[in-house]
Write a structure and sequence with these properties.
143 residues; alpha+beta; four-stranded mixed β-sheet; two-stranded antiparallel sheet; 31% strand; Endonuclease_RusA-like
């Protein structure tokens, strides 16, 4: 089992950019997304030294995005208690895409091995991403 908390603000996957060259068109990630993926991959490599997991995986992710600056104390308390959820952009699936791509070849061989995904998006005064990865075989043995 892998359990880790990345102390960085979640970044959504944006549309790839295209650039022309003599050799054709080259697709690339925007700078913000590329930097996010590199940061996540670097931190994951520092904390996880084993081989990537393979086989059917169960992944749980909690994305904690920052509170807006103009929020009442009452609303802030509701958000910190997870009673008020962020139903605003960016979409959850865009957060998932950039994060899972960053962890490929570190936590798992390929993200196509993820058979169960449990993901939440919350507000927090400390933006971060928390992940738990289990092999489904390991999860079955726990029950």
């Amino acid at each position: 089992m892998i359990k880790h908390s990345f102390q960085t603000m979640p970044v959504e996957q944006q549309r790839p950019r295209a650039a022309r060259s003599r050799f054709g068109v080259r697709m690339y990630d925007p700078r913000k997304v590329k930097k996010f993926k590199q940061t996540i991959a670097y931190e994951a490599r520092l904390t996880y030294k084993d081989k990537p997991l393979s086989g059917a995986l169960d992944v749980s992710i909690d994305f904690y995005r920052p509170n807006q600056k103009q929020v009442s104390k009452r609303e802030l308390a509701r958000r910190n208690a997870k009673l008020s959820l962020p139903v605003v952009k960016p979409d959850l699936d865009n957060y998932i895409k950039s994060f899972l791509d960053a962890l490929t070849d570190i936590y798992w061989v390929d993200d196509n091995e993820i058979c169960h995904l449990d993901v939440w998006k919350f507000y927090s005064s400390t933006p971060r991403i928390e992940i738990t990865v289990k092999s489904l075989e390991e999860k079955r043995n726990d029950n």
